Amino acid sequence: MTTLPAYQRITPGPLHATLLAGTVPLFLGALLSDIAYTQTFQIQWANFASWLIAGALVFCGLALLCALVNLVRAERKAGAPVLYVLLLLVTWILGLVNAFQHAKDAYAAMPAGLVLSAIVLLLTLAATWIGLRAGGGK
Q1: Coiled-coil ranges per the record (predicted)?
Q2: 84-103: per-residue pLDDT in tens?
Q3: What CA–CA distance (Å, rounded) separates 34 from 50?
Q4: 79 φ/ψ sector (left φ>0, alpha ψ -120 to 50, else beta)
Q5: What is the average per-residue pLDDT within 23-36?
């Protein structure tokens, strides 16, 4: 069994995989916090969601950076992980919009914040599935 050198790797390395997988619980926690806020109207749930989104954006941004490095280094015939990079980019952009939405007053952030959290979580799950399955290349 031969392995590709690190510069030809199309699957995520350990750091990249950890950053990618770290986005899922943070965005999930933000969605659950938004659901808790809509049920209880306790402002702290909206604050939790804001912090979780900020942490998820850090993880997602670093995973996007790693994915861009993999995209540049991947052999073109090996199948460049373009879809994976695009999903991460859209996830990060919508996550940033969600962070701006949550920066409003807690009452004003809903229901758009809840909807955005759900969409961003679905995008994160799709990007993680594609990224960890085959590095987005297959």
Answers
A1: none
A2: 999 999 999 999 999 999 99
A3: 9
A4: left
A5: 97
Spell out the domain ranges in the chain. Answer: 14-134
How far, in whole angstroms, is CA 109 from its chain's centroid? 20
Question: What's residue 8's pLDDT?
Answer: 46
pTM of the model: 0.85
Q: How far apart are CA 53 and CA 96, in angstroms?
A: 8
Percent helix / strand / coil, the chain, rounded to 5 = 80, 0, 20
Task: Measure CA of the first residue to CA of the last residue in the chain; give whole Å.
Answer: 20
Number of C-alpha atoms within 13 angstroms, CB side, residue 107?
1
In angstroms, what CA-CA distances link 127 with 26, 40, 104?
A: 14, 31, 28
Q: pLDDT tens digits for 41-56?
A: 999 999 999 999 999 9
